[in-house]
Design goal:
With about 450 residues, the protein is of the alpha+beta class. It has 16 helices and twelve strands. The strands form two sheets. A seven-stranded mixed beta sheet has the order 1-5-6-4-7-3-2.
């Protein structure tokens, strides 16, 4: 991921303070006042107009992500996030950096397994130039040799460091075990072998295949009218190919039942485990989301936290998660503990998973989870223009509908205790794949 925030920091700070003061009012307005804007070239975006502060936030996402990396060129999408601002059009890397610094917009790019995303925040007064620079980055990046080699070297340093990072080793080992012979099992960040092999042509091919008008979702918040937005959409995204050229990614289910112990000299053992989950569009998603919150997603209020940390003092923190990918789903859990406590920590986590599978959450736990998840949503997702733009992009990617923010609470309220118990049994009854990274007993 790459992010720039250089000029006008004071102005952005003042605007952010104004937003935080007005957060409740702004959030409630955003929940209902969303417009669909379609440009002359047929490019669609969701817009929330707000002129309280002179800011414009744009979030966009292309389907594809690291699953579109060529075999042997893993890390292409990830490397691309570092190179879009390293020269574009007639401006080489240094000249482009000066232009960005003079303009002062904040921006970032990120590549996940399923998507390549980006965002910008700009002052209204600087928006024309900001959109020009964004247009150049997305449509005319230079990919000059020196920046490519410089960013590769930086990535290589990170990859070497990951080889001695127990958490990274655990994540890699679990990924390989869950998704053998599938794009999800490949390293999104690349390897020490694949990163040097990536060429300028690989980067350009990826960009042309993924960056397309039929493959993008866009959310915009701030001081911009629908007509101004239409012009921006055609300017920034109009030059792209009409249709993406994505490689098909097969549906898959995670492999389970394997136990892998990686011997590694580290003060604490990393424990991570996973089993099959569900996808975001599954009708049982909200029930699964609530069950996971009760199990270990609710941090200090979760069962795992109570049993692993509070009652037994086996670890400082413990968690569970519900991972939804475009072509798979996963339920996982993990912690870090001293070597002497590894077996006990694994045993306690598995016991709580099995208990949840058999009994499900209590009615009281379910209601507390609903209350927290509904109440925290606005605070976590709707308190800044940038976050709201990201939500607008995300609800389009997931096909949730323009009224999702208003209806989200009703989806959670509709989950019954019977629904929660059924999905707990369905998701948590299989034997997980377990990975530990730490000193093994001799």
């Amino acid at each position: 991921m790459k992010m720039i925030s250089q000029k006008l920091k004071t102005t952005f700070a003042v605007v952010g303070f104004a937003l935080s003061i007005a957060g409740t009012t702004i959030s409630s307005a955003y929940a209902v006042d969303i417009k669909t804007v379609v440009s002359d070239k047929g490019i669609k975006a969701l817009l929330v107009e707000d002129y309280a502060v002179p800011l414009i936030a744009v979030s966009f996402s292309f389907k594809g992500g690291s699953t579109q990396d060529a075999v042997g060129k893993e890390g292409t999408a990830s490397l691309l996030t570092n190179l879009l601002d390293e020269g574009a059009g007639d401006l080489d890397s240094q000249a482009f950096q000066v232009a960005l610094d003079d303009n002062g917009m904040k921006f970032s790019f990120n590549a996940s397994q399923d998507s390549f995303s980006g965002s910008i925040q700009t002052l209204k007064s600087e928006s024309a130039r900001s959109f020009e620079l964004l247009t150049l980055m997305l449509n005319n990046p230079r990919f000059d040799a020196d920046p490519i080699e410089r960013m590769k070297a930086s990535r290589m340093n990170g990859l070497r460091a990951a080889e001695t990072n127990p958490q990274a080793i655990a994540s890699k080992t679990l990924r390989n075990a869950l998704y053998p012979n599938h794009p999800y099992g490949r390293p999104s960040g690349g390897t020490l072998e694949s990163m040097p092999a990536i060429t300028k042509q690989d980067l350009e091919t990826y960009r042309k295949n993924v960056f397309a008008r039929d493959n993008v979702v866009i959310g915009v918040v701030g001081a911009i009218s629908p007509d101004e937005l239409k012009a921006m959409l055609d300017q920034v995204f109009g030059p792209m190919a009409e249709k993406a050229n994505l490689k098909p990614v097969p549906e898959t289910q995670v492999k389970t039942g394997e136990t892998i112990a990686v011997d590694f000299n580290t003060p604490q053992t990393i424990i991570t485990m996973a089993m099959p989950g569900i996808k975001r569009e599954d009708e049982e998603f909200y029930a699964a989301y609530l069950v996971n919150y009760v199990l270990g997603g609710g941090s200090f209020s979760s069962r795992l936290y109570e049993e692993v940390r509070e009652k037994r003092g086996l670890a400082y923190g413990v968690y569970s998660y519900l991972g939804t990918k475009d072509h798979s789903g996963v339920v996982g859990a993990g912690t870090a503990t001293s070597t002497s406590n590894t077996e006990k920590a694994v045993e306690v986590i598995l016991t709580e998973i099995e208990k949840m599978a058999k009994e499900g959450p209590s009615a009281e736990e379910l209601e507390k989870a609903k209350k927290y998840i509904k109440g925290s949503y606005a605070i976590s997702n709707l308190d800044t223009s940038g976050k709201i733009a990201s939500v607008l992009s995300a609800i389009q990617s997931a096909g949730l509908g323009i009224d999702y923010i208003d209806r989200r609470a009703s989806y959670l309220d509709a989950v019954t205790i019977e629904d929660a118990k059924a999905v707990a049994q369905k998701l948590l009854s299989s034997k997980p794949t377990i990975v530990t990274v730490g000193k093994t007993a001799k």
